[in-house]
Design a protein that fits this description.
This protein is about 40% helix and about 15% strand. The protein has helices at about 20-30, 70-85, 95-110, 120-125, 135-150, 160-165, 220-230, 250-260, 275-280, 295, 300-310, 320-325, 340-350, 350-370, 370-390; strands spanning about 1-5, 35-40, 60-65, 90, 115, 150-155, 175, 210, 240-245, 265, 285-290, 315, 330-335.
Length: about 400
């Protein structure tokens, strides 16, 4: 199968593009010919602008489309050319810079169009302050109309499945494709113990509790910082780390200062993606804390998948996909509750045996279900539905 995959964000700079990168790699490993086209970051040419990764160059072809400022019409022409020889067009994220070229190219060559729905973008954008109004309005328009435009949809969560159904999209044209993890990348046998003794951690043999994630508007790292405040005196030997960067980082550092925790919490800022497995290997406890909100229920959290693959003892909020993803291999706590989060972390700090038991169960869960190979196989099912034309084409139903 020849697959053209489109994404509105530059895979070199945005952490959430890991989904399309890994799905593309696994599809290629399954024998498909995959071409990924993404929109170049407008600051990509700046030599000091930090990159998370270089363009992968092994089994998948990558093309950088023009930066979105007034270039969409040129990108449409490029994507139409790419789509001519594809069997299916795949698009992720409901932003015009990728979605409009996908729609035009699928229409031009009468190719099936598949949408990979991994987040409720409308709700996430509502939670982020300072965005231009047009960004939110555009996302809301396209997200509501997507069922009218596409042949098949993959969703990352049961909550998004329900949204599709409420929009009138037939369940027979949907597949669930949760987030996954790279089992080889997070295999402890491939990691070095030296990271505990190096910067930015340099913690020796002390217990390490980590929160890993992008610190943007829809993150909940502040719950982690407040839980540290409740436990710092009780566990003076423990080290706490917030691993990631984003617009919330300065506020979190200020919060730690106000709580007299600056000497206890390590803030790493952005780390290269190939460093995250070493951080998780060094950790004793990995935390995935959330509030109970609709856009959280729509998520399939990447951090949970990677914690599982790393074989970590996990403390996670009982919300959305998290209970299913962890499958009993985590201490689950009430979402949004600092006190319950602190209770769960304390339970594991006090019990090394339980940490080992949960870590083994976590890795087993990742190997059986929560990995990118399994996700790619489910995505294949969606492609076959689109190519078969079975159950009627929703674009023809008006």
């Amino acid at each position: 199968m020849r697959v053209l995959m489109l994404h509105p964000h530059d895979v070199r700079f945005y952490p959430w593009t890991i989904r399309i990168i890994k799905l593309a790699e696994e599809l290629a490993a399954l024998g498909h010919e995959v071409h990924v086209a993404c929109v170049e970051h407008k600051r990509a040419a700046e030599p000091d602008f930090p990159r998370l990764r270089e363009l992968p160059n092994d089994t998948v072809r990558y093309t950088l489309l023009r930066s979105r400022d007034n270039q969409t019409y040129k990108n449409i022409a490029h994507v139409i050319r790419f789509a001519k020889d594809a069997d299916i067009v795949h698009v992720q994220k409901c932003f015009a810079s990728a979605l409009v070229p996908a729609l035009w190219s699928a229409w031009r060559w009468n190719k099936p169009l598949h949408y990979d729905w991994d987040d409720n973008e409308t709700l996430i954008l509502e939670a982020i302050t300072g965005l231009p109004p047009g960004v939110f309005c555009q996302a809301r328009f396209f997200e509501r109309r997507l069922p009218d435009y596409v042949d098949t949809i993959s969703v990352a969560s049961d909550a998004l499945w329900r949204v599709c159904r409420e929009h009138g999209f037939p369940e027979s044209r949907m597949v669930k494709v949760p987030v996954g993890a790279d089992l080889s990348l997070f295999d402890s046998r491939n990691r070095s113990e030296s990271f505990r003794r190096e910067q930015p951690l340099a913690i020796g043999d002390r217990p390490l509790v980590v929160y890993v994630g992008q610190l943007e508007g829809a993150a909940y790292a502040s719950l982690f910082v407040h839980a540290c405040a409740l436990l710092a005196d009780r566990f003076p030997e423990a080290v706490w780390a917030v691993v990631g960067g984003g617009e919330m980082l300065a506020d979190l550092e200020e919060l730690a200062f106000r709580l007299d925790l600056s000497h206890r919490i390590i803030f790493t800022d952005y780390l290269s993606s190939d460093t995250i497995p070493d951080v998780l290997y060094a950790a004793d406890i990995a935390v995935a804390c959330f509030s109970d909100e609709e856009f959280v229920r729509c998520k399939s959290p990447l951090k949970v998948a990677e914690y599982l693959a790393a074989g970590k003892a996990i403390v996670a909020s009982r919300v959305g996909e998290v209970p299913w993803m962890t499958g009993g291999a985590a201490v689950l706590v009430e979402p949004g509750s600092v006190e319950d989060l602190a209770r769960g972390i304390a339970e594991l700090l006090e019990c090394p045996d339980k940490r080992r038991e949960l870590g083994l169960a976590a890795r087993a869960r990742a190997e059986s279900e929560i990995n990118w190979r399994m996700s790619a196989k489910k995505l294949e099912e969606g492609y076959r539905l689109a190519l078969s034309g079975g159950a009627g084409n929703p674009k023809d139903t008006g």
